[in-house]
Specification:
Layout lengths: L7 H19 L3 H8 L2 H8 L3 H11 L9 H10 L1
Helix pairs in contact: 1-2, 4-5
Length: 81
């Protein structure tokens, strides 16, 4: 977990690092992952310092739908809906 960025430079560094990690995990280029695999809302919410608190709140409270989703998947799903 990278946590919330404290500066604009840290924000950009964290986003680049996260996209690079996703691309490595998926076996695609950074450009392909950024354009096709990472929903723009995720980066937008992180940039506005609301993504981390959303995940922390749901994971701390143990909130989870009655589904087969992991807590992290459920938190992502609620964010996108």
């Amino acid at each position: 977990t990278m946590g919330e960025p404290e500066t604009q430079i840290q924000l950009q560094t964290n986003i680049r690092s996260a996209v690079k990690n996703v691309s490595s995990h998926l076996g695609n280029t950074v450009a392909v992952c950024r354009k096709y695999y990472i929903h723009p809302l995720i980066i937008d919410k992180y940039s506005k310092n609301t993504l981390v608190s959303h995940f922390e709140k749901l994971l701390r409270e143990g909130e989870k739908a009655d589904t087969l989703l992991s807590p992290e998947e459920y938190a992502t799903w609620t964010l996108l809906h």
